[in-house]
Specification:
Layout: E1 10-13, E2 23-28, H1 32-35, H2 44-53, E3 60-64, H3 93-101, E4 105-109, H4 120-135, E5 139-144, H5 149-157, E6 161-162
Parallel strand pairs: 2-5, 3-4, 3-5
Antiparallel strand pairs: 1-2, 1-6
Amino acid sequence: MPADEPVKLREWRAPNTERGRGRLFTCGRPGRGTFGRERRRVDDDTIDRWVKGLPEAELLDIVSLLGKKRDDYSEFGYYPFRSSEEADDKPIFQQWLDERYGRRFVVHEFPTVDAQGIAPEVLKEITGCVLDLLETGRTVVIIDSAGAERTARVCEAIGYDRMKGSV
């Protein structure tokens, strides 16, 4: 079984030096590198490996595009945490990260549907958030299910290019 956590971790670069003083990365959700598309609970050890593989920063901003699969299955169904948009007795993603790792992360949630693209109004919200974070020098990781489609649409919308030979 592969154990590439986080899967498809990539760094993106601004088209010019004036834009974005922070660093921008994309990757897949925790467990995608270990279990692929299999719908199974992702254990804490796998999430720990995912966290350890993330870029180092004093405070890391996670822009989550996780939402639902096309069949309405929650992309948070794999985890011991939930989206802030969902009603459940599990802690929300931010709370769970804080309890387990301390205040090292800030989660920004923009629920989307896997394999459906991103609605223009939602894309505008996401890109505004990402650009604001980058302009203040933050390190940002955008995540979706596999770290490929939705994440790339956001990076392309703000004019960033994937760095050759990135992580």
